[in-house]
Specification:
The protein is of the alpha+beta class. The chain folds into 5 domains: about 70 residues, Alpha-Beta Plaits; about 260 residues, no CATH class; about 90 residues, Calcium-transporting ATPase, cytoplasmic transduction domain A; about 150 residues, 3-Layer(aba) Sandwich (Rossmann fold); about 120 residues, Calcium-transporting ATPase, cytoplasmic domain N (3-Layer(aba) Sandwich). Helix content is about 50%, strand content about 20%. The strands form 5 sheets. The chain has a 7-stranded mixed beta sheet with strand order 14-26-25-24-15-22-23, with helices on both faces. A hairpin with a 4-residue loop joins strand 2 and strand 3. It is elongated, with a radius of gyration of 33 Å. It starts with a strand and ends in a 5-residue tail after the last helix. The relative contact order is 0.10. The mean pLDDT is about 85.
Amino acid sequence: MKKIILSIEGMTCSACSNGLEKYLNKQKGIKQASVNLVLANASIEYDEKILTVDQLNEFVKKAGFKSLGEFKEIKIESKNKKEKRKFIFFTVLAIIFMYIAMGHMIHLPTLEMIDPSKNPIGYTICLFIFAILFLIYGFDVLKNGYKNLIHRTPNMDTLVGIGVLSSFLYSIYSMVLIIRGDTSAIHHLYFESAAMVIYFVKLGRYLDGISKDKTKEAIQKLVKITPEKATIKVDGKEKIVTIDEVHKGDIVVSRPGERISVDGEIIEGKAHLDESFITGESKPVTKDRGAKVIAGSINYDGYIEYKAEKIGRESTISEIVKLVVEASNTKAPIAKMADIVSSYFVPIVMIIAILSFLLYLILGYDFASSLIVFVTILVVACPCSLGLATPLAIVVSEGKCANHGILVKSSEILENAQKINTVVFDKTGTLTYGTLKISEIKNYSKMENNELLQLIGSIERKSTHPIGKAFTDYMEENRIKPLEVKEFGNVSGYGVIGKANNQKVIIGNAKILKSFQIENPYKEDENELAKKGNSIVYVVQDKEIIALIGVNDIIRKNAKEVIEKLNKNKIDTIMLTGDNKETAETIAKEIGIGKVIANVVPSEKTQVIKELKKQSKNVMMCGDGINDSPALATADIGVSVKSGTDIAMDSSDVILTRNNLDCILTLIHISKSTMKIIKQNLFWAFFYNILMIPIAIGILKPVGIVINPMIASLAMVISSLTVILNTLRLRKK
């Protein structure tokens, strides 16, 4: 199966996106399709053995829309000067039109040639010409409505189109009667209603477009961070090229004040880089030879040369944007419910409008009065606000999460995070920084400490665990040359085995002693190290412990504060670690963690998560993504705490690009705010339609309250605008 995101043109409401999504999911070879109205794209998982991209584009076309090809970037379709001028022109035209059409009713001065009492034919033809201009202005609406009706996926534009054309065609009939001498037909002209409905729909669409662009700005800011040009070295000479011209392996040059052009590795020089846009760290980070650099970072003070490693869509920024876009194309359960309602809503409204039209005729009303009721119902019931209620809030929130260094892989997370009542933390690399240092050595061997650490470090260098890095760093700091290692093996969750200098040793945690049935005669030393908060590394040779190594880590500066806030919000906190119990409890006590589960291997962590879920706990697991992958995948929400350079964590639902546990609280807060806004939006959207449809039918006619198509179209715009403005409050929460 292959996944592709296509940019879609022509979607105007939820009925459009729902119709396209339903159509795509019916096609053979498509496993799953999800259409995003706000970002105007479709995420399609398909069998590439059955379908091609061209065939997918054709499916989109057959559904009544246009595929713009594979999604490459989030485009902010800012309103250009031409479009803005056109909108202003028709706004002025609408005011003039309404003056001509209705000015005489309130005795405003009117030119004799267009005065309905003195020149009814001139008045009628003037209204007709104005109406034609507005129909041309709203031709896209009418065309889209017709196409979707043909494809049996009626949408908002279908309702508007039927209403507008019905009133327009009847007005032409009345115009013919007037020209033939029946001046009484002047009371049955609805050219202004047709025109104003078009105008208000275009007004709503214009405002809607602006609001959608605002929701994309947070993501677009990341893209704009990357420079457009780079300086590369070719045959020893510097050459300025565009970013697209940089290839993997190219040597890129960066000077003080410049932004890093592409992701890469420093091969020459040293500098302090500002990576705050990704990591959130305000202090510049020292980067030396061998260090990784991220595109968009600012070089403060040094000259560096680095080898290009990740370019184009492989870069860290592109990966972040991709994750956010893919998340936006997933649907939370509440969004799916709204989509189901919207898909049935339009056909139901059309039936109600037709039945109301027939009922009015049966009750003795004339054709014109019955038609106005028909048109009013169609226009007032347009489900624009219902369609915007959920997806707009989701996109705003995901953009806000991205601004806080929180990458959410699925919209469902934004709905579920508010339900979390238990947060499980890994220790090393999560509650601590994961920058382990050797703090104390209990050497029981005949080797000197440096000789012992040379043996251990040479083997640990082949491990990806943070403890392995601690030994590697020690060797580099003390200029200890590594030995050649043979027979290396990794014992997942326990430690490593290796042979160097003809000495075979086992290195690991307390679990490895039990696994190999090794006695520990150094319990007192073990307890002494543990009480100081050390993680203990056991070194075994020939079935005997030859050393206990205390490895210390630094607790994250805000860990205690985060735990306190979680506890205040009645969210249980648990430490789940492979470290020994004494060490874990020492750290847990310091930061206020409620419960400690220690001496567990990765598979056991998964079992703990399963047991918690069986107890009706909504579990969030926070880990560093190395040994915690199974547990992260098992939890209701898996949070990977990593630095900005490594963001593609398959096992987690959420990736924190900033080394800050506050992001967990921020995610929960955003989730609560998002769901509150969505519920408010849905309530208003449903309330509006429940209220306005009966009024449009004429239920309040006995007390003198009636609405016409113009008022209906204005009400529709106000409803959508209410949802938009309410949603945009999320940006400030």
